[in-house]
Hints:
The chain is mainly α. It has helices at residues 3-27, 29-38, 45-64, 68-86, 91-110, 117-121.
Amino acid sequence: MNSNLLLLLARILLGADFVIAGYGKLVGAAGMTGYFGSLGLPDSVVFVYLVGAFELLAGLAVIVGFQVRIAAILLALFCVATGFMAHSAEFTILMKNIAMAGGFLALAGAGAGTYALERRTGRVSATV
């Protein structure tokens, strides 16, 4: 199979979870504030909106292939941080977050591939 097609598929699979989660936080921010507060995070709707917007925009950037290396590194860090902050008692979910971080780091190393917005515009993602 074509490596550029595999990179596109990887971008879609890795980014989709964050688009869905980010959208969910943006439309259900009031319900998330209590959960964030229980984790010791700022118990504020504004903080939930910031996290939701980050997840949504970074996920979309990965999917469409815009500044993929930067978005992938940020999402890898986010996966590890949220894994330990929110899921340390849930080993399977913690390991899923760490595995996703590995996928994002591999994507950061490989770049977006040919089927990416940054290739269409002539702008290439930052080199890592």
